[in-house]
Amino acid sequence: MADADSSVGESYPSDCYVLGFEETDRTHVAVVGGKGAHLGELSRIEGIHVPAGYCVTSGAFRRVLADVPSIDERIAQLSRLHPDDRESVRALSAEIRAGVAETSVPDDLAAAITAPLARLGEGAAYAVRSSATAEDLPTASFAGQQDTYLNIVGPAAVLEHVSRCWASLFTERAVTYRLRNGFDHRTVHMAVVVQQMVSPDASGVLFTADPVTSNRRITSVEAGFGLGEALVSGRVNADVYTVRDGEIVDKSVAVKQLAVHASPEGGTREQALAPDQRGEPALTDTQVVRLARLGRRIEAHFGCPQDIEWCLSDGDIQIVQSRPITTLFPIPAADDEEHHVYVSVGHQQMMTDPMKPLGLSFWQLTTPVPMAEAGGRLFVDVTERLASPASRDRVMESLGRSDPLIGDALRTVLDRGDLIPSLPDSTPAEPPPGAAPTVPDTDADLVTELIERGQASNAALEREIGTVSGPALFDFILTDVEELRRILFDPRSLQVIMSALNASWWLNERLEAWLGDKSVADALTQSVPDNVTSQMGLALLDVADVIRSHPDVVAFLRAADSDDFLDKLHELDELHELDELDERGELSEREGVDELEGVNASAGGREAGDAIRAFLGKHGMRCAGEIDITRPRWSERPTTLLPLILNNVDNVEPGAGEQRFQEGLRAARTKEAEVLERLRALPGGEAKAEETKRMINRVRTFIGYREYPKYFMVSRYLHYKRALLEEAERLVRAGALAEKEDVFFLGFHEFRDAVRTGQVDGRLIRRREEAFRAHQTLTPPRVLTSDGEAVTGSYRRADVPDDALAGLAVSAGTVEGRARVVTDLAQADLAAGDILVTACTDPGWSPLFVTIKGLVTEAGGLMTHGAVVAREYGLPAVVGVEDATRLIPDGRRIRVHGTSGYVEVLPEEGD
């Protein structure tokens, strides 16, 4: 499919205002819009019947638009609006619509638009449909955004409704859709389809993929009597048929009260159905199967699943529209025809946003497990491991423990028995990558050694990477990635982490059995040593302490909107020193500080700047979504930190960093003493207490290190990124690249080839940018099959109140407070005592944890970073709450049951 701004179709002159369906195909989107191009293409498919018609081209629209007063200025103004500014969008779009509607159509253009009616039949009825040049694309459907008019009779009426379609490019809903999806109003034009009406016995839609589960093997057919308008508007319930592999596997025949038919005088009318017809199916089973076969033929022609409008007249099925289904999550590519089951990597890494190609390729270079790509996300194929009983049990236990929704979804797949073969265990199952069964001695020196080795390795990289450039840089990075993998997957490192996790699980299971105390390990792991992620949040509190004592610095930072604010902080001190000299009469001029005019002179700017720089020196490689190397780091965009720092200034008391650490340490020691005392009172209590003490020591010694391997990885990523961006700048200077960040849309090896050849495919960059925008609108499933089915799991729990939201308990305690739903870290506006509700939290989110008193996320597991830090801070937390950001209203009071694993949305006053 051509891009929205494609120039394909320019073989037609600009004054070509009308094209028949037979003259158009999928390459003419820029001329006849998405709908018109699809109808032209449909008419070329053997065995597909399309009602006759023609397209009024986008050239006709542009000619009329040029006569609308002040149109360029108004469209430019429209492009600057925010999609949530509904009043401004509504008012300005109405002005533009009125301007288009009031502009007269030139006589020669009007004659051209109505001339084909003489051939098709002036007395016939027509459907007049909008066909925007950014409509029905593989990445954006625009379905329902512009207008359609049915049963239009006569040249004058057709011309009038063509004009209405032109104006509908600027309806509020169409304008808002374009703003949200990044389409430039100035590059989207309106063509119009004029198509003979069919008076159908039945009509409806068919989807060549299941619209609920996304299964591509399923065809879904919806049917009703008369025109499809009744179904689309929801005035009647549809018969629904499910077809799989050429057979109807499910059907539901609705009771239909009415049908919509064409009215002899134009337009449409409702007609009540006879009582004996209301329960009758609109189609026979044979017709349904025939429809499904036609759908597969159309899908094969276009190369992607289709949403198809059809009608049945005198036994003949006619297709009146087909568009791509844009809401389906893509399927990972496979080099065979076998069934596959994939598990989301993003849900394990607490980053479910799409990644750009360079980020995807770096993660694939880093991981020891082959990963498949789809929708800008990565997935692991677990098919073979599920097929073998021994490895199946290990996979199910591991994934089910970390994310019960993944575990339950996989159990659903296994129970169905249609995707995973059952293979005998011919050889002992190999341990999965990362398995480390050996338990090391509980030795803090081992943790210290591992940390020092990682730090030394990263320091060596920082020294050496600046000595290479050009193609040699890429070879250097490939070699260094092997060193990174050695650090990440060092057996001793994995043994430390796994022994900590196993000790934590042991404590929870045994102490619940012995003492009836749930989630004891959560309390015992507060304020552990060596947790670089939780230390980061406390360090940002210390930065706030430095800044808080300088009110003018605080005011300056509140107004800062550019990343050079750190340099200007130092200049604040210079301004203060100049003011002191001026007061003593020792200053003749005030040079070099003009840009700070109007800012209060203040001491403390240099101190504040040094504190922020020191924080960035240790943590500046972090950011939200940090596993994607293309994401801007805090050191690259330090303004990202300002809301977090100022939030701490406003909501946290001085000295809170050290105070919170000590409070957590005291709470952990108190809980330990209580548990051991209660154990000793049991039969065999001394042995139980002794074993429990060993496990407490092990988990407290080792669990903090859990955060270090990823810290080393993202530190290395920043060094790689800085060096690679220097290569990108050289490409920009050479004219091969428009913007240095464009290289983010190249894979690692593509980037290396570009540096080697000095050439970059700009069209590839643009296509990847468009695809990335489309990926941002998709929600990745936890489990995905090669049929495209998004398999959902459930908690299947009886201990959750009916009106509560179930999740996974990861940090014990119960807390009540105001929910703040945050989807973008940069937009976080939290007050002390709020409960953070978000999709997922990687380490870049953890500085917010020092302000909140509870956490709810849609993704996550027992040992994901957010859960680990929440436990260390003593924050009750429930993760894996499906659709939490949608089901929990922002500002509503909620109760988080971090021990039992559910969230209650509390009634508002008056409920």
TrEMBL record:
It comes from the Bacteria. Residues 832-901 form the PEP-utilising enzyme mobile domain. InterPro entries: ATP_grasp_subdomain_1 (IPR013815), PEP-util_enz_mobile_dom (IPR008279), PEP_Utilizing_Enz (IPR051549), Phosphohistidine_dom_sf (IPR036637), PPDK_AMP/ATP-bd (IPR002192). Pfam families: PEP-utilizers, PPDK_N. Residues 420-439 are annotated as: Disordered. PANTHER family: PHOSPHOENOLPYRUVATE SYNTHASE-RELATED, PPDK_N DOMAIN-CONTAINING PROTEIN. This is Phosphoenolpyruvate synthase. It comes from Streptomyces tubbatahanensis.
